[in-house]
Each structure stands twice: as structure tokens, then as C-alpha cells.
Amino acid sequence: MGFEQLAGLRDRLRAEKEQAKAANEKRRKPKSSSQEKPREQDPALEAIWRLQRHFPLAFPVNPAPKVPLKEGILKDAEQHLAQLGITSEQLKLGVAAWCKGARYWASMVENAPRLDLNGQPVGTVTAAQALHAKQQASRQRSQERRNREKLKNRTPAADTTTGAAATEAQSSE
Questions:
Q1: Closest to 108 (Cα-Cα) out of 98, 118, 117
Q2: What pTM value is reported for the model?
């Protein structure tokens, strides 16, 4: 091949590459517009996402610390179901998921203000509630520790011992 033929081939390959790139971008554009709306996912996560959008002071986005919520916050939030665009069941799942976990339990310290949907203080965390939250966090940590230990024990170590016995049996034959 001569230089002129190579240059023509190079130009043709570049043009094909640019066309393929443009076609890929056209295919991606509809996906990016659909990303504005959350995809179908866990109903609890969907509820939490919507609560965070509509009530950012009561449901702050990570890494901001969670805040203790008003007792009866679920009844208050149920009045906003139409605005949130979720069902009552989704709301219950979302609030329950929000209030379970180390970040929420860490916020439950004695005399910490409890906030309503607008972020206004409407009460405080009692000593008994703070103690309960501390116990829940401890229980969750120990459960996670037990689960990790179970996973470690499930490793192929048991298989290697049976494999070693099989190897010894084969070598003795």
C-alpha cells in the first residue's frame, strides 16, 4: 500500500469512529433524561429519597448527621402523601428504615431536640430513649460481627480438609 492509500484508509477509519461515537451519544441521551427521575427501586429507599427532597431539615442527606425525629412524625408525614407521591405503606417503610441504623441511633442522645418535618424542635430525647438507642446500636454491631464471623468460617477451609484427606487416600493406594 502506498502512502496515499494509507492516508485514505486512516481518514475513513476516523470518520467511522466519529459516526459510532455520535450514535452512542444519541443512545445515551434518553437515559440521562430518565436519570432525573429515580428508577424503580426499593419502596423504602424511594420514600426516603422523596422525604429528603421535601423535608431536608428532618431528613438530611449523608454525610450530614441524622436528627432525632418528633414522636408521631409518621402521622404528620401522612398528611403530605400526595405531595410526596408515595403510598402510606411506602411512607411507613421509609420512616422505619430511616429510624433503624447507627446514624439515627447516634443522634439519639439525652436532651437532644426532636424535630418536626420543618426542622423545628418539638421535644427532646429522654434518658430512656437514649439508652434504648444505645442498646440498639450495640445489638446491631454485635449482629454484624457475628455475620462477619460466619462468613469467615464458611470459607473453603472445610473443603481443604476433605481435599487433604482425599489426597492422602489417593497417595496411599
A1: 98
A2: 0.62
